Amino acid sequence: MERFQWLKIAVLLWLFTIAGARELQVKHMELQIKQSDHGPVYNHTLAKILVEYASAVYMSDLTELFTWTCSRCDDMIREFEVLELIVDVQHCLQAFVGYAKDLNAVVIAFRGTQEHSIQNWVEDLFWKQLDLNYPGMPDAMVHHGFYSAYHNTTIRPCLLNAVRRAKRLYGDIPIMVTGHSMGGAMASFCALDLSVNFDGPCEVQLMTFGQPRIGNSVFASYFSQHVPNTIRVTHAHDMVPHLPPYYTYFPQKTYHHFPREVWIYNVGLESLVYVAEKICDASGEDPSCSRSVMGNSITDHLSYYGIQLQAETWGSCRIVNSNLNNYGVKDLRGNIVLSRDPTTTPYSAIVLNSEIGIQSASAV
Ligand SMILES: *[C@@H]1O[C@H](CO)[C@@H](O)[C@H](O)[C@H]1NC(C)=O
Ligand SMILES: *[C@@H]1O[C@H](CO)[C@@H](O)[C@H](O)[C@H]1NC(C)=O
Q: Where do the Fungal lipase-type domain residues begin and end (predicted)?
């Protein structure tokens, strides 16, 4: 009996040692990579802040989002001024641009897909073709659908306007672009667009969570030249970063991620599990990061740093937009753009449209 107890303790100690050794190994590798090449520096604190923006943009109550009072809007980020909230109702897309006082940066966040089922959306990813030449970049191929979600919808013109306004208001501060899943794909096209096509200088940082591949290796290498400050966070067995597939035996012709991946994964067994973060190599397709495991989890896709990244309900492009007509325009197709200037209209001064007053009066 006593011997059995000792055995248990010995096994536990051994497990701790293994876990500790692996952590050391991970730390050591991170250090080596940081010193050996000059990629972007991964900042865990910043990642935990940006993931909250990527989560908030999923909220469907536009009033709460616009006034930054939604349930996901106040955890880590209190002093955020929404400048523009864009909803492309036609294509079921949503994004916002705002000023984050604590970061002294403009933050742009894109919502992920709102299709009927995430399962179906993920399965469709498998078949996405490289079917568009990225304009101005010879041999760079991307997926047309991802490209046009950003480039050929209400999103881009409204967003660029908002960035110009932000620059007038706050000067040339960094622009941090973020998004989860499909929103990460759109954030990538946006970051590249701001770096390459935007008038005037832009210090663009991109951090995405669980994004799919969006282009081929030629595109990936242009991308990392133009948006060097890019972190692509992947989580454990999240399926989406594995899609559309990368074929090792056909590297020039398949999809290829751009760097730099940071892979979050669990180390250890059962109650001894802890979370490790690995900063991956500069190839974009580090075989020892997320590619070292099966991409077979939707659950891992929907949560990063413990934050939920999905809408309250799937399968609807539901918008709750009761009373902000004073701040918005709606185009003929029903797309909505809400704008405000925080210097003249602080949140406290946002007045609700009088129509609502009349409605509630008549209801009473
Ligand atoms: C990481 O980001 C946080 C939040 O922006 C910042 O306060 C901190 O100084 C950064 N750390 C490093 C090492 O850059
Ligand atoms: C942009 O969208 C319009 C209509 O939605 C379509 O006719 C056009 O072909 C699209 N252009 C590109 C480059 O995708």
A: 107-246
